[in-house]
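Reviewer 2 asked us to include a model.

Predict the structure of this chain.
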Amino acid sequence: QVQLVESGGGLVQAGGSLRLSCAAAGRTFSSYAMGWFRQAPGKEREFVAAVSASGGLTSGGDSVKGRFTISRDNAKNTVYLQMNSLKPEDTAVYYCARARAFFATTRIETYEYWGQGTQVTVSS
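Predicted model (structure tokens):
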């Protein structure tokens, strides 16, 4: 069983920054790609960013490119999402997820384990 615990969410003004963290339990963290998704009220869960198992390749959704950066520290079993220049439309519950394979992917069905989510609220 894989447990993922997100932290770092909160309330921030537009233009501000937040850094989300996701700590994973287990010894196989470095073998799998990790991703961040978000879900706003009344909307479907959408892809935000992903990072390959080694951390060498990353991918970001069109709405966050240039503003959000995903990274990982395999020694700490942790994946991060640095969010800059936040906008009110970034308001959502943010989830981290572990993929089924080592390569970064944008497709939600390729992720197997999910955290409980952390709320990010951006005020205008």
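The mean pLDDT is 95. The two ends are 40 Å apart (CA to CA). We have added this to the supplementary material.
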